[in-house]
Structure formats: structure tokens, C-alpha cells
Amino acid sequence: MTIDNSGATAAELLKTKQHFKALDGLRGVAALAVVTFHFMEMAIYNYSKLFIGHGFLAVDFFFCLSGFVVGYAYDDRVRRMGLKEFFTSRLIRLHPLVIFGSVLGLIALFADPFVKGPPGYSTGKVVLMFLASILMIPYPAMQERGFNNFSLNAPAWSLFWEYIANIVFAIVLVRINKQWLALLTAVAAITLCLVGYHSGALSGGWSGRNFWDGGARVAYSFLAGLLVYRSRWIIRSRLGFGVLSILLLLAFVMPYVKHGWIREAVVVLFYFPLLVALGAGAKLTPLSEKLCTFAGDMSYPLYMTHYAVIWIFGNYYSTYKPDMTHLAVVVTCGVITMVGFAYLVMKFYDLPLRRYLRSKQRAAVLNT
């Protein structure tokens, strides 16, 4: 059994730290915004006409939140627990749903009731798409899906960059001081602005055509979240979960303007780190704390399981062209259904599998 210099056993270092409940809740709000945005973009391609046209910025909030949470959870113990246990812990936390989402995407590819006949791809290519998806290897193979980096489960593009951020964190970022971290964050901010200026928006990263935009997005936001944690920029306030949720949603529903990438950059560079700082210091009522716990638990399963339905919905909309009234009903029911499905996935697949894998990990540590 491994013991570090402070006397803590490796098994103790694997224990999960207490959560920031308000941040968990905001993660759930962002996940709901993403699902709603993905439904709506299948019907209304012009984001400026969407009521939630900046819903894609939820990914930048996820990255910023991840930097803060990973820093809080592992900054003081990565070197003590070792790279192997850190990476194993992150895989246990993230990868079961990567696999599940890939399986759902594969099923939806063959079982879409609004597509006639089998998909026009050879068995070998479908196998490659599936293997790339479960192994988190970008493979933009489907033209009709915008050459999505992960054809069977589109949101996995952000998980790919999340994995990269975790690797860089464990190998590099835990070893540098706050001053170097601030410098890296400033360089990443400049890079993000250059990407926004070149692309006209901060919505890239999901496709082979804008792959590296995702690197710029995760670089700044993850570093900014980590900087907020290390600088202890936690703002104590009486703002409740409801107010914080409204403040977050305002970023997703802000209207489009000329040179809108500047406004998007301001939101990502300053507004999201501020919300993370406010969320970390928020005081919650017992009821809102329970709600935040539920929303946080649901956020990742919802994010990783909803897109198979989104592809089916897109083909439904192309086939039947429902009016706005029917569209609102379908989208509302779709979001509610996906939340319910995500709950079942969490309860009967994700949590039991992660408990089992963590028990195996701890047993292996205790036997070394």
C-alpha cells in the first residue's frame, strides 16, 4: 500500500472531495441549455434567429467549470497519488458514458425511423466510426453530419479536449506556480480572440473543418477556471441558485450583433469565470441544494446521451416540417424525455459501473 510524505494512503487520496453544490447546479442548467440548443438548431439553422442562439457557449462554461473543479479536486494530490491513479480516476468518471453514448449513436444510425434504408456506409467504415468514438479518436467521416469529429456522438468533441486538458493538467499545470498560470491564461486569451476574429464566432471545435478552434476554447477556459481556484477568487454572496441560473442563461440567449465574436469573447473571458467565482461562494437553501445535487448528477449523462435523439429529430423535422407550435411541443417533450432517460442511465448504468470500477481501483491500490 502506497503512503505519501504526509502520511495519507493512496486509498485515502482516491476519495472524492465535497462538491460545490451551486456549481453542480449550474452545470445542470448548462446541460439543459445545450440540449435545447441542439434540438432547435436542427430546425433553425440561422443562430441569430434562435432564442437560445448562443447555447454553444455552454461548452466554454463547462471547460471553465472543469478547470476550477479539477484544480480543487486534484491540485494538491496528483503528484502524491501518481499519474496512473489520476488518469484511472478520470477514466472511471468520464469514459463509461463515452462508451454508452457511442452505442446509442450506433443504434440511432441503423434504427432511425425517418431514414429509408440502411446508412450508405460500408460495414468497415461504420466499425471504424464506432471504434474511433469509444476510443476518443476524432474521425470526421460523415459529410451529411458536417464532418463531425465524432460521427456517432457529436458532443464527444468537447470530451476529447477535456481529456487533453486533464493530461496537460497532470503533467504540466500542477507543476507551475500561479504567475506562470496567469501568463499562460493571458496567452490563451489572445489565441481565443484570434480564433474568434478569424472564424467570426467562438462556436468551432466540433468538426474536422474547425478542429483546432476547440483547442483554443478549452485552453483558455480550463486555465481560467484553474486560475480562479488557485487565486481563491471565491465571491461570497447571498445570490441563490435561481439568480445564478438566470445570469448563466443570459449568456446563451443574448442577441446577435455585428462582430458578435467580440461579445462572445467577453462572455468567455470574463463573465464565465465570474459566474464560477460566484457559484463557488453561493449560499443555498436546503431545497436548492437538493435541486443542485440532482442537476449536477444529471448533467453529464444528459450531455452524453442526448445526441442520438437529436439526429433522429433532425430527420423528423426534414420529413414533416412541423409549424412553430408543434415544434415547441416536440422540443419540450424531447428535452423532458431526455432528462428522464439520462436519469435512468445514471441510476442503472453510470453510477453502478463507476462504483464497481472504483472498488476495483481501491482494491488494486491496497494490494500494491
Name the average pLDDT: 93
Shape: globular
Classification by helices and strands: mainly alpha
Beginning-to-end CA distance, first to last residue: 5 Å
| Topology as a string of helices (H) and strands (E) | HHHHHHHHHHHHHH
Per DSSP E runs of 2 or more residues, the count of β-strands stands at 0
Q: What summary fits the major beta sheet? A: none
Low-confidence stretches: none
Strand content: under 5%
Radius of gyration from the alpha-carbon trace, in angstroms: 20 Å
3D architecture notes:
By secondary structure, the chain is an all-alpha fold. The protein has one domain. 70% of the residues lie in helices and 0% in strands.
Essential attributes:
single chain; about 375 residues; mainly alpha; about 70% helix
Task: Describe this structure in a few short sentences.
This protein is mainly α and 368 residues long. The chain has helices spanning 10-13, 21-41, 58-74, 78-81, 83-111, 123-134, 156-171, 178-199, 211-230, 241-253, 260-280, 286-305, 307-320, 324-366.
